[in-house]
Amino acid sequence: MNKQKRLEILQRLRDANPNPTTELEFSTPFELLVAVTLSAQATDVGVNKATRKLFPVANTPEKIIELGLDGLKSYIKTIGLYNSKAENVMKACKMLVEKHNSQVPQSREALEALPGVGRKTANVVLNTAFGWPTIAVDTHIFRVSNRTKFAMGKNVDQVEQKLLKVVPKEFKVDVHHWLILHGRYTCVARKPRCGSCIIEDLCEFKEKTEI
Ligand code: SF4
């Protein structure tokens, strides 16, 4: 895909949604960190349901530690893999208290050193809590980037590197939200909704649908 088309796609996505953000509910960097950690292989809707009850009771590392492992599990047991997620959140909380003055660190290295936090989670936190121009490639971004030929790659790391290279600076902070939302609601996995897609004339997917 050429530069001009990419630019036009980004402009259209921005015009349609000038201030995109995550669908995970959070009000502090710590809440976002917990929500993203819980969201692996789970839906944002499912995570929000659990955190709406958890955060009013415990939304700091100290308060989660006070809840205890079983207490934490009781709030998140509707989320897949909740046992291991609870253990990771608890260990991460202890590390935040011991090493980071109970604050979420604004550093990729420090974030990735927390249990249960990989590159994708670190990218989301740096981007959405702190405004860094990072791009967290999930299944939706991977699919949309390859299908449209906007930024092709064989794995998420390749797509991330390609996106970082081809997306102009002014769009970098928001591009990951636009692509996720586009993949979640329009360019869906099984049958993309090309008939109602705002970038249909620019997308280079060969098997477009009419719906
Ligand atoms: S035209 Fe179809 S394949 Fe292309 S981005 Fe839109 S929904 Fe996805």
From TrEMBL:
Entry annotated with the keyword Metal-binding: yes
BP GO terms, sorted: base-excision repair, AP site formation
Record carries keyword Calcium: no
EC primary class: lyase
Catalytic activity: 2'-deoxyribonucleotide-(2'-deoxyribose 5'-phosphate)-2'-deoxyribonucleotide-DNA = a 3'-end 2'-deoxyribonucleotide-(2,3-dehydro-2,3-deoxyribose 5'-phosphate)-DNA + a 5'-end 5'-phospho-2'-deoxyribonucleoside-DNA + H(+)
Cofactor note: Binds 1 [4Fe-4S] cluster.
Binding site for [4Fe-4S] cluster: C187, C194, C197, C203
Keyword set, alphabetical order: 4Fe-4S, DNA damage, DNA repair, DNA-binding, Endonuclease, Glycosidase, Hydrolase, Iron, Iron-sulfur, Lyase, Metal-binding, Nuclease
EC number of this enzyme: 4.2.99.18
Domain named HhH-GPD: residues: 38-185
Gene3D superfamilies named in the record: Helix-hairpin-Helix base-excision DNA repair enzymes (C-terminal), Hypothetical protein, domain 2
Cofactor(s) this protein cannot do without: [4Fe-4S] cluster
Any one GO molecular-function label of the UniProt entry: metal ion binding
Family: Belongs to the Nth/MutY family.
HAMAP family, A to Z: Nth (MF_00942)
NCBIfam families documented for this protein: nth, PRK10702.1
Protein's job: DNA repair enzyme that has both DNA N-glycosylase activity and AP-lyase activity. The DNA N-glycosylase activity releases various damaged pyrimidines from DNA by cleaving the N-glycosidic bond, leaving an AP (apurinic/apyrimidinic) site. The AP-lyase activity cleaves the phosphodiester bond 3' to the AP site by a beta-elimination, leaving a 3'-terminal unsaturated sugar and a product with a terminal 5'-phosphate.
Listed name of the protein: Endonuclease III
Origin species: Catenovulum agarivorans DS-2
Gene that encodes it: nth
